[in-house]
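2024-03-11 09:14:02 DEBUG pipeline.ingest accepted 1 chain
2024-03-11 09:14:02 DEBUG pipeline.ingest length=439
2024-03-11 09:14:03 DEBUG pipeline.predict start
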Amino acid sequence: MNKKVAFYTLGCKLNFSETSAIGRLFTESGFEIVSFTDPADIYLINTCSVTDHADKKCRKVVQEALKYSPGAYIAIVGCYAQLKPKEISEIPGVDIVLGAAEKFRIIEYISDLTRHAKTRIYNQPIEITTEFIPSFSIGERTRTFLKVQDGCDYTCTFCTIPLARGSSRSDTISHVVQQANEVVASGVKEIVLTGVNLGDFGIRNGEREDNFFDLLKALGDIKDINRIRISSIEPNLLTDEIIDFVASSDKFVPHFHIPLQSGSNKILGLMRRRYRRELYAERVARIRKLMPDCCIGVDIIVGFPGETREDFLDTYNFLTDLEVSYFHVFNYSERENTAAVEMKGKVPGSHRSERSKMLHILSEKKRRAFYDTQKGKQESILFEADHKDGYMHGFSRNYVKVKTPYDPLLVNEIRSVKFEDIAFDGDMEISESVDILVH
C-alpha cells in the first residue's frame, strides 16, 4: 500500500501555493495525500513567522497530528523553520526541519521515513538561497494561488521575511504564462498572483530583467482565463499604469490589497516604509476615480514602538476618511534580529489590544458601507465548493462575499446575480434567479 501524507499550512497564500507544490512532489513519489484528521505516515507542517506565537501554533499542530497517528513522521518547513530550526527541533515528536532552500527537496531527505533519536535539521544560510522555485495551489478548483515572486529586498524594521525567505527573485514571464495556461486548462476559473513583494517582480540573479507591469500585460493576453486577482502590492509599487491597466481589463478584477501599516508619517518613518500616507491617499483616489466599485483592502499594524495615542488617532482618522473597503489588523509583535526590537517607546499589550479592537470595529463599518454601495447591482459570482448549514458562498469580481442555498450544480460556476441585501452574518444575499455566464 502507498504511504500516506497529510499537510497543514499556517500563514499566507504563498505558503498555500508552496504546500500544494510540495504535495505534488509526494504524489509523484507514490504517496497518497489524505486529510490532516486521517491517520498518515508523514505529516508536513508549513509554518509562518509573521503572526504571533509561531512556536505555540507549530507545537499545537504537531500534538494534533500525533493524536491521529502516534507513530507518524513529522516534518516542519516554512519561514519559522528557516528562522528557528533549533527551537522547532526541541518540540517532542518532530523528526526533521527543513529550511527555505531544502523544503522543495524533501523527498530526498525523508528516504524511508526512518525515525532517528535526534531531530535532523537541514537549513542553509538564507543569504545563499537565490533560486526561485515556482509553485501553485491546486485543490480548490475555483481558484489557484500562483507564486510568481519570492523574497524581499526591503528593510522594514518590524519584518523578518527577508531573513526567512532571502532576497527578491522571480519567475520568468514565459514560465508564469505557461503555468497559468496549465491551471486554466485544469478547470480553474480564477488565478490569484502571489509573492512576498509581488510588485517587485522581475529580478533574476540579482538583476532586474523586467517588471510587474510586463507580467500583467502578458497574462492579460491569455484567452481562456476568466479572472486574475492581485493578492497584495506595496503602494509605492502600485503605479498609475498598473491601475489604469486593471481598470481597462476584462480579466483583472477590481480588487487591490495595499499594505499601509500606519497612517502616521512619523511611524511610517520608524518602520522604514518606502512611502508616506499622502502617496497612499493618492493611490486610493486614483483607483476610486477609475473603478468606483473597486474593493480596496488595507494592512495595519498597531502598537509599533513609539506609537503614542496621538499617533494612533492620526492613523484612525486617516483611515476613517479614506475610501477603502476593509482592514487586516495586526498587533505589533517583537521579532528577534529586527531593528524595531531595539527601539524605545514600547507600547503596552493592553494598549495594542484596545487599538486593534477600535480598528476592527472601523473595518466592519467600512466593509458594510462598501457592501451598501453594491446593493441592487448586477454582478458575476464565482461559487466555491465549501458549504455549511445548507449554504454555499461565492465572490464577485470586486470581492463581495455572497451566500445562497447549497446547490452542487453551482460549484465552480460563474453566474450573474443581483445583490439584494446584507445578511445578518455580513454576507451579501442575492436574487434566486441566476444565469450561467461561464461553463
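2024-03-11 09:14:41 DEBUG pipeline.report The chain is about 30% helix and 25% strand.
2024-03-11 09:14:41 DEBUG pipeline.predict end
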